[in-house]
Amino acid sequence: MPIDLALIFPPSLVDLVIVDEAAEFPIDALLSLVRKFKKIVFATTVQGYEGSGRGFELRFAESVKREARHAVAAITLMTPIRFMPGDPLERWAQETLLLKPELPQPEMSSVEIREIPRDFKVISDFYSILAEAHYRNEPNDLAAMMDLPNRSFVAAYGGGRPLGIVELSREGPLSEGEVRIIEEGGELPGNLIPDKLIGRSRMKGFERYWGQRIVRIAVHPAFQRRGVGTSLLSYVEKKAMEAGAAWVGASFSVDKEILSFWVKNGYVPAYISWKAVRSAGSPSAIVIKPLERAVEDMLRGRSPEIMWHWIMGVPTIFKGVNPEAMALCLTTLGRLSKRAGMPIKGFLEQPLESSIPLLAWAARAYSSSERPRLDLLEALLRFLRDGEGSRTDKVKISELLRQLYGSNGEVTGCIGVS
Fold first, then answer.
1. CA pair distance 168, 171, nearest whole angstrom
2. Is residue 256's pLDDT more than 70?
3. Domains of the chain and any CATH numbers
4. pLDDT in tens, 360-377
5. Using one digit for the tens of pLDDT, what is the confidence trace for 287-309?
6. pLDDT of 280 strictly over 60
7. Which DSSP string do the residues of 297-352 spell out, in sequence order?
8. What percent of the residues of the chain are helix, what percent strand, and what percent coil, each to the nearest 5?
9. What whole-number distance in Å separates Cα of residue 154 and Cα of residue 214?
């Protein structure tokens, strides 16, 4: 049964919800079940390739704990199903297919970051870290890392042992013929960021520049949130600038926590897909960090149209994007954009439900304001997405409008709250 259909049932009629292979679903969709039902069992594969590795387990467990709605119990199936205990064939299969790679034990006392060769033995030393961090790892992933052109690697070592890794893909510049393929609706394998930013975000001129796309970045789970990822990015950016690259970028499943990491490191959202990524079940985003003024000016010039595209798509093509993540995308890109004006005559006295088009103007203007509050913008985006809102969200929307126009005396009292 699809999750959307399960959410139709009233909680009083449901004793227990069971979700098998939970890693197949977006975390936001799973949390919607957590918020509605009292008893839920989430089952997923930790080792192997049906699931996601422990990355999903760790992220989802943290999200559930933050919700603070349920007592959480973790149960691990230890009894073998496919093999007898200690079966040598199982051990051979695990070693051959990298089904159970052991994590290294690095130290933070001495961290070294350097480029590493495209060598199977060297890269496979980091594979357990990649398996912990990313959805649906497959043995073919390691083969692809070895075989695909224009790939390079940067690694962090702690005490001489693997600590983190970045996989890079050089993309661009494009020929006139390649640009024509994009403009006619085609795709260019191996040039994901130029493809989307030229074809979807309409950044004309971007084809003249090359950059480095960060395909994967992963840090040992025991050493995350300790600056290793930021140090890896700084090294990549420095080397890219020295080589003459005009930008560094990345593409990933839209998630507020992941997006926050990139934004804190100076990356700007420039594209959101309107289709869910099959590997993660949610739309993808592209972020870039301009290394040349020309690329920054290009992004600044396109930012108003990109922001309008996102805001107007909230009720339709971007309905699957979490409002918290969308708010962060808008305010980050909004720093590059001029503040938008808004027609407000007669607007402030109307119920919010009668003012959807003008509320879109408000979202656009507030995203480019000096100190936007994410919780207020999130409330407005939820309202635009759903066409209605809770009293709490309506109060927040009224506060947002006061921040935008209160200094002119245009807004008084609580607007549109009944």
1. 9
2. yes
3. 1-100 (3.40.50.300), 111-331 (3.40.630.30), 339-408 (no CATH)
4. 989 999 999 989 999 999
5. 999 999 999 999 999 999 999 99
6. no
7. HHHHHHHHHHHHHHHHHTTTTTTTS-HHHHHHHHHHHHTTSPPPP---TTTTTS-G
8. 45, 15, 40
9. 10
